[in-house]
User: Fold this.
Amino acid sequence: GGPPAPPFNLVNFPPGSRSIAPGETLSFEIEFRPSRLGGHTATLAISGEAHCETKVVELTGTGVQHVLVVAPFAVDHGFVPVGARSTMWLRLENLGNRELHAGPFTLETLTGGEFELPADGQLSLAPGGQAKVALVFSPSELGISTARLVFESDDETLPSKEVALLGRGGGPQLDARPRALDFGLVAVGGSRTEVVTLSNLGADAPGTNEDNLRFAVRANDGSWTETPAELIGEATGFAIEWPPLGYESAGLPAGDQAGLPVVFSPTASGRSNATLRIYSNDFNKPVVEIALSAEGATFPRCEYEVVPPQLDFGHVLPGATRTLSFLVRNTATSPADVCVVSPPRLAFGSAAELALVDPPASEVNLDPGETLEIAVRFSPAQQAVFTGAVELFTSSASSPMASIALTGSAEPSCLTLLPNHHDFGDVEVGCSSREVPFVVSNACSSPIELSALGFLPGASPSFSINHMPALPASLETNQSVGFRVAFGPVALGRATAALRLETSDGEAQILSLWGTGATTSTRTDEFHIDPAPKVDVLLVVDDSCSMYDKQVALGAAFPAFVGDADSRGVDYRIAITTTSVDIAHGGSNNGGSDANGRFVPLGGGNPRVITARTPNKERVFAENVNVGTNGNYDELLLKPFELALSEPLLSTHNAGFLRSDARLSVVLISDAADHDATPFSFYSGFLARLKGASQYSVSGMLPTQPTSAGSGCDYDESTAGQSPTARSLVASTGGALEEICNPDWPAAMSRIGAVAFGSAFRSRFPLSDLPDLSSAPITVTIDAVAIPAVSPVGDVRWTYNSAANAIDFEPSAVPEPGSTLRVSYTAGCR
Assistant:
């Protein structure tokens, strides 16, 4: 091998001396040919005659891989939102001592695409010169795109060059709310925390978490450095709690949220301002700023309590709703000690199934002794355990923040506590409300042991449980037990309580109670009339031997039954089953044609569900209600609708009838007594579980006389008028009760239809308490307009029905669809 050749050499200059005439110039051409990378140096010595000074020329050069430098060798645009444009730069530098040319540029797509060919067709670079080439990536869909940028140059060492291109459609998008944050007035010495919600609204690229939202800053080399948010400006009293709540090191996936607590703790009165700056890998907005403002202030002393300190919703059926309340009470006695309470909010991370009900929109000033009621609604859709908290801030310097824990679970249950809430309204201090009955029912297939019943901590002492059952106790299948609660306020103002029923297997049912201590016992019952009612109507028709003429009369009365509903555009479904139930399904006898809750016709033929659009619906109805007279002689009036509206029939034979957003109306048609020993509470609980409170009614064409109707119409038996459970269901649900031996079936069925086809046509509205008419008259309003009982021309609009304890409207004056009816009265002192 031998030593490498020297890097510097004279070109076309053979060894020896040269003569230079006066004024003549001699040029030297020196070649640099490095054998390694890096710097090289040498000296060129030029010597003349003895009297001439030797001249020395320093030679330097750098050995490089290529004269044309291209950087970077790969361009990664990272994640770019669909529809956005990312521009990155390719740098070309000529390290040589002669002009170089680069181009033309061509683009070779490998996957995806979305890259743009550089506009520069050909580049010329002077010695030492530089140029930049724009590389654009504009994705139109999610996913990875790759390509190669290829070009040629006259650099002998780099005649052709490839640059790898990479980009990903998608990526994070930071949404920070609120855009500006004003803490308002905060007590000096106290503090207030507000949470900035940080959401990733970006699109998720499948198969990677690199598109997660990260709070970071990107360096020039493309790497990311986690960077906390910071406060800009004077920022006196402000602080950040980093990292955000719910934020993990892997970042925030698309659709997720994190909460950044920002705290203001004033040490002196006065205004403070700051800017919250948040850094992220959001392509479009890598820096977001939020203006912060607050004011420290001096307040009177604030002493308060929150009762109860937490809300336990217990077990709630999936799809059902339960509402509980807590009170914020100013416990001070000095008139000057006013508490300022901020609007409450759900804590970050609270389950979406929890919601505040009509919270105050601005700060509330509570005088000593005053209370603020905050209601929370729990609406679980699926079986799970849910948690959360309500947060509120006060003007108290020592305890500025209150946090009320929320817990609840959703799971199927066959144990019911009905009703599960009650508002006693205004009750005069020193008096007591009427006792309100509550019923616990077991619809399970096995006994349930009730282990405890009592008020949760924080309950007002104004509530009392009366006629409480002895516990523990075993509740058999289809058995019920009841108790009563009364409200006797000991002080003016709002009171609340939650009563918890526990079973030995850990299930808990919660009863929500409210009441207001007042100077008089004023009640206001409110009814919301359906704006566009949907109604599912199920007729249970007696198919025993005495029913032929009644079935014919029922079929002929169909136009009267649905006439008003048709004229008002009610969306209804009508189905019919019979009173025949065999032993296997809960009856006491077997019959040859027992329907067992199945809709007629049992075979083919007419449609089983009749709607307003069913062709020849009058004929179909008349034929369907003609169920025959060979049915079971032990008629069951209520069991058939329970079977009809339960599985497996709901998903099989009776499919297509029951709708979740429609009212349910059951109409009983029979001239016999109900041979069902199942208690009222079972059927009441079944309907409540199926449809929720006030979304159902039971009406009937039934025997109303003790033994005989007379006037040429016979009952099926002498005890026909003694069906207490059926009649109790009619009364308790606001249904209509008509005599089966009615000489005018169209008129009777028209009255039943007015109730059965929804609250838009209700004429009777039961009251929650007994009015004391000697103290004050009953007042009625519809949409806040007073409705006198008698019109100016003497027409009766409504009357108080003392027997039913209800307001009865005349047909011409019933509240219109979509309206709100309020009935106010004074209850007597007990």
